Amino acid sequence: MRTDVFALRHIGIREEDLPEMLKTVQVDNLEQLIYETLPDDIRLKKPLDLPMAMSEHEFLTHLQKLSEKNKVFKSYIGLGYHESLTPSPIKRNILENPGWYTAYTPYQAEIAQGRLEALLNFQTMICDLTGMELANASLLDESTSAAEAMTMLYEVRSRDQKKNNTVKFFVSEEVLPQTLSLLKTRAIPLGIELVIGDHGSFEFTNDFYGALLQYPGKYGQVNDYASFVAKAKEQEIKVAVAADILSLVLLTPPGEFGADVVVGTTQRFGIPLGYGGPHAAFFATKDEYKRSIPGRIIGVTKDTDGKPALRMALQTREQHIKRDKATSNICTAQVLLAVMAGMYGVYHGPRGLKYIADKVHSSTATLADALEKLGLFQTNTSYFDTILVKADAKLVRPEAEKNEVNFFYPDADTVSISLNEATSLKDLQQIADIFAKALSKEGVKIDSLSPKTIIDGSIKRTSSFMENAVFNSFHSETQLMRYIKKLERKDLALNHSMISLGSCTMKLNAASEMLPLSTPQWGNIHPFVPVEQAEGYQIMLKELEQDLNVITGFAGTSLQPNSGAQGEYAGLMTIRAYHESNGDHNRNICLIPASAHGTNPASAVMAGMKVVVTKTDEKGNIDVGDLEAKVEQHKENLAALMVTYPSTHGVFESSIKHITKLIHDNGGQVYMDGANMNAQVGITNPAAIGADVCHLNLHKTFAIPHGGGGPGVGPICVAEQLVPFLPGNPLIKTGGEKAITAISAAPWGSSLVCLISYGYIKMLGEKGLTHSTKIAILNANYIKHRLSGKFDVLYTGEMGRAAHEMIIDCRPFKENGIEVTDIAKRLMDYGFHSPTVSFPVAGTMMIEPTESEGLSELNRFCDAMLSIRAEIDEASLENSANVLKNAPHTLDMVTNDNWEFPYSRQKAAFPLPYVSENKFWPSIRRVDEAYGDRNLICTCAPIEAYAEA
């Protein structure tokens, strides 16, 4: 075996495994299987034009050299991004730990209690700091959260406001520029009218439904908003506040002066800058809006035995349930980053956070005093960490950059300076020296921090926060390490066994792809530095864009969207802009097959389109006849078709080119959902099937880890006619010549984790990428054949093949009293995470093994499924006391003195011999979902308190 070929490390199937597998799937070779799986007219006729594959050593050396092209200056730019210090035990035990970064979204609560507890900590911390009643488990970035606040408040308008078409939303001119850009993007298609102005002179009238304030303002001024909020309430105007999380340690929480929503980012709680992301945003609101809050909420419930348990509550997947009635398409959160930020709060505790916030504020006051001694005027009357200095930017900037320091320059006569946790006395002295030198002044000496505070008494925080035991118990490294390990042991991740989730592609996240994320040359660069300081990033991002162009067959790529659902929205907004540029303002109909991902219709509505659902036939394919009828009916107003390929049912539909031509012939554009791209790379592509735009889930096909529900990256790749409309950014030039406004806060979205996909492509190369696709298809068909006769596969292609995933039908087992959920829970006893349950068809499982699983693991999974099938045969409607209905079985159950079940303890816990070699114990019994929703508790007041609730 060649030890320097990454493909041999990434792909689990060995050359010697192929004969057995090919025999099982009844083909002579791999090429025959591919021929029988996808239509010949969409096969690529030549290999992908990509560079030769690098070895892991070559890649890491290459990336090190590339990182040296980045200039890591001290950045005091602010604008929502600040250098922070990641505690080493959090970096080592979470960020660099596959037990945390390879876990899936915690839909199977019984094997995700650790992550759920970490997220409950995060939610509690956010509620305490913001003064709000309810917080979700994170959103994508601060600007996205602010936009979600605007749309949520629009949704919860009063009956009279809806009746009177009240659509005005006030935005303070103090709001961050990237947030304002994103608000414009979201507002236009929904008909929301933004009014931007001075909050101090805002005229409160009844034609406004909401307002957004920044706290502190974009250049550091801290305003007392109490009277503004009181006046807004008199006019039934609801108020959202975008707040700096660290400042809330010292400032009055927005919840205490009447805010309805508080949003922001937790980036400065130990998360690297990463040239823009990923970072965990927060969204906190009042309990009365719990049915409207976007994203995921972790709630407390109980298990079968009445013991406290955690699970995702309420509208966990509301966009899949409500579809085009959904208020948001939010799917991916930023769980890994929220876990890190929450653990930062655990490690430092309230006293530690107070120390950090005091130090940041004292440093700012000290710097202001020093600059005043130089004769410089500072304009903020009350501030936390940012001062606004009147000085000639043309003189200051060259001197600052010569000393490898970045400030922000709002205009020619102003310098904005935002300090942070990492700012030392030495740094303060350097800043003062820069101004002295630039302005030819005599220097001043800074040898200690000023004890004074520049926060008005009316806005000083007086309330306590984070009093829960979890924030006051783990302040030594030993304690924190053990707490993190305790939580990790409760979660089943890819470092334990295969996670065969259809539509989610839980493949290997190689260590060589992950290692660079920990290095300061990549991690410590502000997203708004001059682009020449980020040359390494620029080279990497441009090459990644080009590689994705080659892979998709398209002409341009935007890496800005930082989730798959956001990519959907971005793609549809480029289509919208394209039609409008052609004068086709009437084109607003979006055709979506009934089998589509639930985020598709939600995204279309957010983009201002009207959803028309088309039927699927009995084989699960698009009903071409119904599609033709709908196209004919709506051809004058047709904007787009959204199609997933291979289909959500795991099939390469042979009519796809006919379908895309039909849309184009009637003036529409084709959006391809790239969720299933792992079945396309190297053998076909979106351009080959006739699509115009697709999003790619880099957290699926291109190896960015799921991190328990995020980070995700969902770039869009577009055909030539759509390139001019790729999204821009108000501070850094990006996007097309006619760029739409921002889709996410940072110019290139979550740039740091793009290193992973860059490495994935560079180390696999054309041959490795193509072979990965073929093996993914082989693995799926191998499982299909091994389960044949025991489980029916619902949909297949014309030659009976699955693509990279398949749907097995579990509905017949209702005759035995067994539901698909019972099978999912029983799989935990065998050491496996369940495949996707009841999507896209209720009562089914969608299985996707990926290419990085080996034959032995595929066989273990199949053995488990076949063993469960035999257990189903033993069950009956009359007797529910069976091994499936009681699954999962916990260590507490199996070691209890009382055993009242009609089967043995061994059958419960060790159903097959391999299980005992590597047993994973679910930490709770089956959760009571209904109880948790009836008794919604989403913060971690001592968890014992809920046991008797």
Strand content: 5-15%
User: Biggest sheet: strands, sense, closure?
Assistant: 7 strands, mixed
> Spans of 5+ residues with little confidence (pLDDT < 50)?
942-949
User: How many β strands by DSSP?
Assistant: 26
Strand order of the largest sheet: 2-8-7-6-5-3-4
Mean pLDDT over the full residue set: 95
Termini distance? Answer: 59 Å
Number of helices, where a helix is a run of at least 4 consecutive DSSP H or I residues = 30
Structure summary:
The chain has 949 residues and is of the alpha/beta class. It contains 30 helices and 26 strands. It starts with 5 loop residues before the first helix and ends in a 15-residue tail after the last helix.
Helices, strands, pairings?
Elements: H1 6-10, H2 18-24, H3 30-37, H4 56-67, E1 74-75, H5 88-95, H6 98-101, H7 113-130, E2 134-135, H8 142-155, H9 159-163, E3 168-172, H10 177-190, E4 193-197, E5 208-215, H11 226-234, E6 238-243, E7 261-265, E8 281-285, E9 297-302, E10 308-313, H12 318-322, H13 335-373, E11 377-378, E12 386-390, H14 393-402, E13 405-406, E14 408-411, E15 414-418, H15 425-438, H16 477-488, H17 511-514, H18 520-523, H19 535-552, E16 556-558, H20 564-581, E17 589-593, H21 599-606, E18 610-614, H22 624-634, E19 638-644, H23 656-665, E20 669-674, H24 686-689, E21 693-696, E22 716-718, H25 751-786, E23 792-793, E24 806-809, H26 820-829, E25 836-837, E26 844-847, H27 855-874, H28 891-895, H29 905-909, H30 929-934
Parallel strand pairs: 1-13, 3-4, 3-5, 5-6, 6-7, 17-18, 17-19, 19-20, 20-21
Antiparallel strand pairs: 2-8, 7-8, 9-10, 11-12, 12-15, 14-15, 16-22, 21-22, 23-24, 24-26, 25-26
Helix pairs in contact: 3-25, 5-13, 5-16, 7-13, 7-16, 8-10, 13-15, 14-15, 19-25, 20-21, 25-27
